[in-house]
From TrEMBL, chains A, B:
Keywords: Methyltransferase, Transferase. It comes from Jeotgalibacillus malaysiensis. It comes from the Bacteria. GO terms for biological process: methylation; RNA processing. One of its GO terms (cellular component) is cytoplasm. Gene3D superfamilies: 3.30.1330.30, 3.40.1280.10. InterPro entries: Alpha/beta_knot_MTases, MRM3-like_sub_bind, Ribosomal_eL30-like_sf, rRNA_Methyltransferase, SpoU_MeTrfase, SpoU_subst-bd, tRNA_m1G_MTases_N. Transmembrane segments: none annotated. Belongs to the class IV-like SAM-binding methyltransferase superfamily. RNA methyltransferase TrmH family. This is 23S rRNA methyltransferase. One of its GO terms (molecular function) is RNA methyltransferase activity. Pfam families: MRM3-like_sub_bind, SpoU_methylase.
Amino acid sequence: MIQSLQNTKVKEWKKLTTKKGRDKSGLFLVEGWHLTEEAIKADAVIEAIIKEGVELPSYMDAVEVHFVTEEISLALAETEHTQGVFAVCRQPEVQFESLQASNILMLDAIQDPGNIGTMIRTADAAGMDAVILGKGTADPYNAKVLRSAQGSHFHLPILKQDLFSSIEHCKESGIPVYGTSLQGAVTYKEAKAGEKFALIMGNEGAGVNNELLALTDQNLYIPIYGKSESLNVAIAAGILLYQLKGE
Amino acid sequence: MIQSLQNTKVKEWKKLTTKKGRDKSGLFLVEGWHLTEEAIKADAVIEAIIKEGVELPSYMDAVEVHFVTEEISLALAETEHTQGVFAVCRQPEVQFESLQASNILMLDAIQDPGNIGTMIRTADAAGMDAVILGKGTADPYNAKVLRSAQGSHFHLPILKQDLFSSIEHCKESGIPVYGTSLQGAVTYKEAKAGEKFALIMGNEGAGVNNELLALTDQNLYIPIYGKSESLNVAIAAGILLYQLKGE
């Protein structure tokens, strides 16, 4: 059992709680039984399982397990009541061009980790083939994003990639691209569901970048019937993805 | 300027950060410029405005303002970086029977304050006439619910009321009631949009109570096309409310 916070491995794991540490190593840390199990089920590349105490369910036999003290578990935890189990996973490196994706969600400068995680989960539920995170969107391997996505990180490819080149690639592949905007947009009910589509959701305050909106095939809006100023971006994504999916 | 944390008013306000204090007084506390302005705009019953420092925008002239120290402001704040402005508002007492509502969202034992707030905001956007919170649903005047709803508390009536009697009342008023369920349910696309409808969303883990589901006109489900186990309840509410609204 690892007992010291000064242990080299513990120090490396602790770095994964920062974006810098994740970017540098290409790894990320998931916390809790549910996410750890999802990682194993999905055959994710798991570098290590970290477990407080010395007991382990038998289905985890195949992976390298490091037993640690409660102190170390608490140092790694980002939830208030940690379950004391973690998996160190490798960030998959996926090229959009090699994916042959035909249903894509793109996120432009989304700030809130809960919104990003919920949109990854919703994209998964709606049967998307990929989620592309453009410039200015928070790190998808942030603990709060991982928690909100409830394991969907292991179900579909998540790419960090420039959205201009992504739109370009969609055009070349015959995938219609929909933006979301209040100006120069048509009501979302007019969007015809098709087998292929890409949808761009934008920043919580500013919306989708105007230069991106100029490149789309059509821009959509969701009418507001009451007095609220807007919908939460993840709610809007849910309504639009299911409308475009249309089955 | 009020300077002491022991001031009687300050002690009363502080109690509003707990459910017990809100229930006893029938008041609630909103924090930040946006929510305070929404309360004023909506002609909510405001018992007091609390403001750190001594300056105030002119449009707040008409209301009773208590200037307080930073220490008191921090004691009342439930956000990390408080804007130092608060409004003490009275919880409206509304009788469902007197509302003549025809579009209603009902929440059965929803636990997460962020989900409740987002659903109140979405119900507002979708033009609902009322949100009814049944037994076991967290307090709508909790600070996190208020923040997630972004002012929608002041746009439509929010009632705490038994859902069995609410369904009964809908039936008497010719309002079809839709439940949400995976069993004995039809896909949500089969729900015909109508002028009148009530929708019940259920607990994040357990869903809608089976006894309530037995009383509905129809139960709906949203298909999952990917590998996620479910949709977030607020996302599902958004998809369903806009489907039922149908315009």
